[in-house]
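FORM 7B: Structural annotation worksheet

SECTION A. Query
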Amino acid sequence: MQQCIPGEEDMIRLGMFLGTFLKGEEIIYLRGELGAGKTTLVRGILRGLGFTGRVTSPSFTLMNVYDSQPPVYHFDFYRLEGGDLTDLGLEDYLGKKGITIIEWPEIGASDLPQDALIINIELVEGDYDRGRMVTIQASGPEHIKLLEELTQNVPTGY
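SECTION B. Predicted structure
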């Protein structure tokens, strides 16, 4: 699934759309350069789950936990040195009843499950003032089924 997202509010709307399909136990990998809109998408996902609190990037804390239903475990690996996940306790969150969202998954890729929803966010023509091209892919049977459901229900205008 690939969509051009023209602005920040549209990215939030896309996240809200995604959030309404998430049940828990999903793993989502967000890829994109700094400022591409990864955390904005997470903000939308949480809004789609009914969460009304503040959503921030976990760049300095490495992880934020949001008390939504289901809970969201939001990781940001950008500042991890050497991609070492051993002391992070990630295995305590993967597979729990909740949604695990990881920004910069390529940093710890060798230690992460392959079964996931993968969302790539790219700047259109490399310009921060233009839209974003969002590509959603999936691996593993549950995430492939989720992607098929998303694709069948995507509203017009995306």
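SECTION C. Observations
The helical segments are 8-19, 38-48, 141-153. The radius of gyration is 15 Å.

SECTION D. Sign-off
Analyst initials: ____
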